[in-house]
Specification:
The structure is a homopentamer. Chain A is 54% helix and 15% strand. Chain A has ten helices and seven strands. The first copy, chain A, has a seven-stranded mixed beta sheet, with helices on both faces. Chain A is elongated. In chain A, strand 4 and strand 5 form a beta hairpin. By secondary structure, chain A is of the alpha+beta class. Chains in contact: A-B, A-E, B-C, C-D, D-E. The interface between B and C is large, with 64 and 61 residues.
Chain lengths: 354, 354, 354, 354, 354
């Protein structure tokens, strides 16, 4: 199961802005990819050093710089110097236990989000952090790991006269956010399927240990909420910002994003209510089963214990037991035992236990 | 049971505004019905193409265009071009997993709602999406399936000098909203009846598996909430909009609608509290039953186990057991056994177990 | 038990403002009582028709028109015409499933409330609707049934120079609201007594089926909340209204009313918390009882089952069983059995089970 | 246990401002104590009539009038006339079921609070009401019963040049409020000790009926909340009032009071969470005990029932039972029985039941 | 376990601003450490008296005065006089049961916070109070005990040209707050590890008494919440204050602090949800175990009780029992018994109990 918290111990007591990578190293070598484009042409290049960026970047064009792998402090530092990024921002980029947030630093906007994906093998949700820096000339994205979720955007960028090529950095950023949030729906769909599966199990009283699975889903929901709830605030802040980097043309797109975010949160809340109800159902199933077991025991014991007693009585060795010498004593005893047994069965029938 | 979420996987990575139908196809062929009316005359026509609309539409008249079936992308596209609708709106219309919402696009207003109906056979609530586009000249409604809920409005439209004929598009839209929300009450009534039925069952300790039914009602409530809660916000936004499409004459009607919406939400909340209480009652019933079963077992076992022991003792085969040779030993043993049995019965009476 | 919802099916699809009585008919014939008064004189009259009102009404006087029985559409319609009441208001008056509300229609104010009373026989709370129309000249009240709760006000009205006679319609309306809310306290008192009674039962572990009664109280609370929660909003709106019908002289009275409303809500919330705690206590009682039953069974069974086994052993019929032929074998066996029994008793004592 | 509500039945239907004492009469005769002081001198006197006040009261001095006992309507009425108090205020003073509140009547301020104290004998919290009237010249306090909580203030008043003597009525009122809220902490401390005691009991699985005690604490908390929650609003309103009776010098003191109030509420909320957790722990303890009981029963029964069966088999009286005539049949049977018993014990050991 | 509340009884009735130490004395002798620094030089000194401060303090320099140990009233009083601190502030400093808060006294700002640390031996969270006084020239900190958490800051202060040396008092205060809140993450990490440990235990159904440990974690969370929740408000107030002591340069740092605070609260809420879910899981585990125990008992009892009855029947001593004399009666009886036993086993297999 995913950990509840990432260790921050190595950071305690350091000056703010000190760069330390918090999180697991998920990729061997960090890579820098630069895409420079305008309406007419597009150029993609793997950079070895951050400096190369300035060779590529040209007038009247937009650049998207994508850094994969956050553990190489030198790269992050170089970018910080090259683009004059505040050291607290750089610190946040390297701390992968960040809460989703939006901050306006006048010259650039800073967005932190989580990329969610579903690992079908372990049935776990994988959470990765993405940081987006956005100015009027460039978009810089920082990812923990190679992630193919942006490939549709890269494809689209290569299409001439697509909106992506014509509109500026804010539209590119919107498309990145849009695809990230769309992926949330995929994850929610998978969780929803699992909920429906265990729901079915519960109603048909199938497996016995479904509670542990429901517990895992609930735990996932609790952790997802930490990634998803702040999202609404992030998108709202982007919508309301008076920064010139966000053009008015983007308003309608951001409103759409806002709607999606609320739908994600709504779905998560629905799942929470569902799992809570499922636990109630499970507990009731368990006590129903207990009831059934107890009934079987009670019926058998209650019928046979008195009969065994009667048999015991006539197994006593007293000299003077007249019944033993009666001719039909044995048959009479059987009669009495069958009558008592029948009475018990009748009683249980009346009580609806059989 | 209805699904928790509709699959959105085919949409991931597409540009915003790309038209893809999300949801199940519920009708074979999409149809377009146009009703053009003013105070004096009314004309109803099935359209084959969207273009025909412009032949029908006349000066000084209001047109209601009703599209049934959302899977034919071409129709939605044609309408988009004909009425200059934003591509994001068209996308929302085709995505039947939309959250109820209201958006003001200056030239037209866009409302998404859910039509609820109750399927008496399966005891399920059926949710369909309706989108309403509203300008000063036309009302366009998009439904998933043929639905007879608007027929009273169509009848009324045919009555000369009815308010519907005299007032403009906003009054027609209000009437559509009003009839949609009125249908919510019908659905709530049905759910209320089921709650009352299972409540009765619980109090009289009738059926054993009522919890599963309560669970289903609860599940329905959870899903309904997703359709109903955003409604309040939708109606509030319509009330507060400064769009000229909504005339001041409509204020009092919208206030009425707002009241109804709150009543729907109130009722849903009441149902939620009711079902939660019913689960408590059910759990208590179950443990009461268990108590009763245990009592029966305990009474029988506790009375007969000691007696069986006594009988066992005098069934032993020791040579030297003086009691066996006493003349009234057998009767004395019966006496002791009856006394012990009686004592037990007395004890249980005192404990109020019998 | 009271129904969760009143059927609205007959209303679906009708134009807004269509008058249809929703609710049960509680009185045979509707009656109209008019009281016309000013500082100097007072006149009370049963009206046969609404028109008669205008004969009674005089200059410089206040009139209170009380309609009992809401099923006669004609009377409501006549009043609508006579006093120029909006058709949506008339519709709301006849729909007894209305949510408490306040609306300002400039010329008159419209208040809907619930009258609560307690039926000691069935232990149910009876909810009736009252609508109050208030202008500067008249107060019109619409009740479902003959109700004696206003008789103290009528008495007071007959006292010359009482504030009621001197102050205007807003003071009369305040007094009506005050007496309605005072009756809420009576109902809460009765429910409080029942809660205290069942609390006592629970703590002394009296009755077994107290949970069902607690459930009924909880259900009542849930339904009462629908009548009571909107009240705060209603009174707040009256306080804040800038209508000239409400004089500044009334401010201090409305503040008092506001206080009472909050106290009613507070008490209801307290009851909710109480009943929730009581259910916990009940569940614990049930499992305590189960524990006790199990203990009795376990003690008896655990003591006698091993003893019965020993008796069984010496009841075997093997030829070669030396113990049987020992002189004191029988007594030794008794010794062993008593020792084992004693050991068990000692064990249970140590475990605090006895 | 304290009652949930005080009976208000005798008040229904009376005009607002009618004086009726609601609550239990806690003292035989009401007393009036007047303390008149300024920087230089102080005079304390028991008054027989309210009128005497005006003899005592002098220019340039502050008077504190303390009325103990609220059942004598005449005294309250006299004070009402003497100080021109609104009749609704007088009504509130006599109704000891009042919610804590603050009201500004321009010439005077009106504060209602609860004095809490802890009765160590019955482990109950005793709630008494105190009303404070505050103008620029006098402070009038109305208590239900003789209460020594103000004696430190009276002592301090007798100290020359103490702040109390120098500052005006608002500082005296602040000190009264401060000492009242300080007493809340005492009560919370006692409840906290009881919670800790029963927590200890629960963790060490001491007493069995701790749930009833937790229930009582929870009930107390629920009732206390009614006294404490409105306090925050009361103090906030006093802080924000623009009445000239509250001098700016008092701001810092009121802020301190506000802090204390929030701390009281925080503690109460903590207690609520604690008791809820304790109930969970208790329920788990109960089912653990049940598990243990069941284990003992199961172990004993499961070991001996098969053995008893074997003994029973060889107690049968068939003519043709070869085993009975074998030489070592009896010993072999013992062998088998010990083997089976040992197997069972091994099984339970493996299951960790022993 | 930590106490719920510190005793305040000795404070009741005292004038506001009276200095009394509330809390346990944690250090023998209070110490005063002064650090005076500016860009160029730094001087650290242990003071014997507060007066010495003024000898050390120089123009154009910042002083940090750290007092350890709050029980010596004289020191606090001396500081109060020397720096003209309001007596209510001094009172708050000495009361270690203070709620975290921020107050602006124009000439200085007053911040109260909790320092959290984790005692690995007892698995308890230790809470200590720290008060910070902040003016443009000095920072005064009051701690309960010697605490090494500020040592990284002291080290950094000794580094020439570090931001700490260059920026003023507000930056020093920010760094103090930052390190305090960083320590919260350490504590949360430890609690998170314990939650994960017991989660693992629960899922693998390891220990039996894990609930008590979860209870302790929950209790810790409840108490932590009292320290952590007010933090958000404290930081917000510092961010929004218009005091000149906080320079605009600090805004970005305070925003960072605000983010951290929200993350702490988020994590605490996550833990709360986790523990609640874990209790559900535990309860289900317990009833699953019970079910298993009951199954074993039921299987054994249900198989052998009927067989014992049959054996009992043929152990009866009736003269006339034909079966006893049949040649293969004994074998037939075994046959019947094995058949019945087999039937039972088959039944339990079908029910999935074996």
């Amino acid at each position: 199961m995913p950990r509840l918290m990432k260790s921050k111990s190595k950071k305690i007591g350091l000056a703010p802005g000190t760069l330390i990578h918090i999180g697991r190293k998920k990729i061997e070598n960090a890579t820098i990819t630069a895409i420079n484009y305008n309406e007419k042409k597009i150029e993609t290049k793997e950079l070895k050093e951050v400096k190369e960026f300035f060779k590529i970047n040209k007038k009247d064009s937009t650049t998207w710089l994508n850094i994969t792998g956050l553990h190489e402090t030198s790269i992050i530092e170089d970018i910080g110097k090259a683009f004059k990024i505040h050291s607290l921002v750089l610190e946040d980029i390297m701390n992968t236990d960040q809460r989703p947030k939006f901050e306006d630093y006048d010259e650039y906007l800073f967005i932190v989000l989580k990329i969610l994906s579903y690992d079908a093998k372990t049935n776990n949700v994988i959470t990765e952090q993405i940081s987006i820096l956005l100015s009027q000339e460039y978009v810089i994205t920082f990812q923990e790991n190679e992630n193919r979720i942006f490939s549709p955007i890269i494809e689209k960028l290569n299409v001439e006269k697509s909106k992506l090529r014509i509109y500026g950095t804010d539209y590119l950023a919107y498309r990145l956010l849009d695809i990230i949030i769309d992926n949330y729906f995929l994850v929610l769909e998978k969780i929803g399927e699992r909920i429906e599966f265990f729901e079915e199990e519960l109603i048909n009283e199938g497996k016995q240990d479904s509670l542990k699975e429901i517990y895992k889903i609930k735990r996932e929901n609790i952790l997802l909420r930490k990634s998803v709830w702040p999202l609404r605030e992030v998108i709202s802040k982007i919508e309301r910002t008076d920064s010139e980097i966000i053009t008015t043309r983007s308003n309608v797109y951001l409103r759409d994003l806002h709607d999606h975010t609320i739908q994600v949160i709504d779905t998560l809340e629905t799942y929470r209510d569902m799992t809570t109800s499922m636990i109630d159902l499970h507990l009731s199933n368990t006590s129903n089963k207990m009831n059934e077991i107890m009934k079987v025991l009670t019926i058998i014991a209650t019928i046979f214990i008195p009969l065994t007693f009667i048999a015991g009585v006539y197994g006593m060795n007293f000299n003077n037991m007249p019944e033993l010498h009666m001719k039909y004593g044995y048959y009479a005893t059987w009669g009495i035992m069958i009558f008592i047994g029948g009475l018990m069965v009748y009683y249980f029938k009346k009580k609806d236990w059989i």
